[in-house]
Amino acid sequence: MYDRMQTFTDTDLAAIHKASMDILENTGVVFQEERSLNIFKDSGFRIDGTTVFFKEEDILAAIEKAPSRFKLSARNPEKSIYIGEDDWAFLPTYGAPFVCEPDGTQRTGTMTDYDNVCKLVQTSKAIDMCGFKHVEPSDVGTETAYLDMLYSNMMLSDKPFMGSTDTVQAARDTMQMIAILFGGEEKVKGNPVTVGLINSLSPLQFAEEMAGSIVEYASWGQPVVIANMIMGGTSGPVSVPGILALMNAEILAGLTLAQLVRPGTPVIYGSTSCPTNMRTGAATIGAPETYKINSATTQLARHYKLPCRTGGSLTDSLVPDGQAMAEGALCLSTSVRNGANFILHSCGMIGTYIGMSFEKWLIDEEMCGIIRAMYTPLEIGETAIDVETIKSVGPGGNYLMAPSTLAGCRTAFYATAFYNKANHNQWESLGRQKIDQAASEELIKRLASYEKPPIDSEIETALTSFLADRKSS
Fold first, then answer.
1. Average pLDDT rounded to a whole number, residues 215-242
2. Does the residue 430 lie in any domain?
3. In this structure, which of 41, 116, 340, 465 has its CB flanked by the most CB atoms within 10 Å?
4. Angle at 36 between CA 225 and CA 341, to 5 degrees
5. Cα torsion angle, 330, 334, 337, 341, sign
6. How far apart are CA 295 and CA 230, in angstroms?
7. Going by C-beta distance under 8 Å and a sequence separation of 6 or more, which residues neighbour residue 163?
8. Which has the closest alpha carbon to 355: 109, 91, 166, 119?
């Protein structure tokens, strides 16, 4: 298959791997958490203070234990999904402190905003699961906000969801809440039902909450995304190949810890690394180097036979404008095309992670549907080709009233929900709406149509009681 996107050779991949092994063995990675250090120590790893040094054979042994594909169970079994190999999932924003309005103004997020994202996920045909911290709610207690967000993920949607890794305690509480939701520890341990996002502290560190969360999630056999956001030229090398070597070393170090805790723990290999804007010192994710890193990340993950996480509809734009759509489409399509399996920030992210836009959320959601349709393989065969219809219509004929057209006219082609497909006169008669205006109207309709998915009343009561107890303590 011809493709202009660079495909790494075995020599390229071996060079990156070799550089990463050199870094891991001779420079090491700092783990700022005592249990993690003890796990490495008890497993025979060389440690100097808080720095852990890795041998290549230990890294390869850990990679061998991690699965290439796993099932992520939802509380509604019909909405369970698979992650890895040829299966992928779209997820919304993560970590946005602000909600951005179409005119560019920013406001702090609220719990209502978070709940509305959960409702959009539940009613979406394109988004496969809830993330976490879709927007950071400012109107609930900072120390316990993660409990409210977890509760909303569980109550307002019956799709899979991400858990909290804000602190080690938050990771522990996530495990307790999934045990309540799914009927006990024995039904959860070793059965993936949530995913924790672990971000290394580049260069070559894991903070206490991240290392501790790896231990908590892995001890229950719950998947973790080991990821980083290296900024080329500041927190990482200025060259993309150098970024890849550093990125790879950090991810494999975290993966090794997860496998030491519980062999077979699913680990998603991930990165949202990007260049630094050397004029401002800020990250710039709407850049060709970001798309190259996305492509390289998927290739490295595939080399190690691991599921992959990359960025979705990423943009540096502060409004849902043409720049946002162009950068988002380039990033999202690159990730899917190159084989990413866990695509975070697929919809709604704006302003280099600073905000979440509801209008862009819906515009991106539509793009996710288009991209999934675009990459769905055609089934070539006698039925699909339908030579008999072609012959029956003949030269100069019309297919509009052909039986095959009448049978498939509603399903043959992908239909967008609110992207403009009208001609100019129709568009003018409808008020000359721009895409963000149409999205604002669509948002009102979607939220109005939401219905809370049913849940066992005893489980809901148990989760409510758990929240009350944890908040009071």
1. 97
2. no
3. 340
4. 10
5. negative
6. 15
7. 132, 150, 171, 174, 175, 178, 194, 195, 196, 217, 222
8. 109
Distance set, CA 296 to CA 8, 123, 206, 286, 334 (Å): 8, 33, 23, 16, 11
Residue 367 lies in domain: 63-374
Q: 76 in a domain, yes or no?
A: yes
Question: Is residue 149 one of the residues assigned to a domain?
Answer: yes
Q: Write out the DSSP string of 183-246.
A: TSHHHHTTS--EEEEEE--SSSEE-HHHHHHHHHHHHTT--EEEE---EETTTB-SSHHHHHHH
The number of distinct structural domains making up the chain is: 1
Give me the torsion for CA of 16, 89, 439, 324, rounded to 10°.
Answer: 0
- What value does the mean pLDDT of the chain take? 96
Q: Tell me which amino acid residue 67 is.
A: P
How many residues make up the chain in this entry? 473
User: In what order do the strands lie in the sheet containing 194-199?
Assistant: 89-90, 342-344, 308-311, 267-270, 224-227, 194-199, 161-162
The model's pLDDT over 246-267, given as tens digits with 9 standing for 90+, comes to 999 999 999 999 999 999 999 9
Is residue 67 one of the residues assigned to a domain?
A: yes
Structure tokens at 126: 């394109």
Contact predicate 358/290, CB 8 Å: no
CATH no. for residue 322? 3.20.20.480
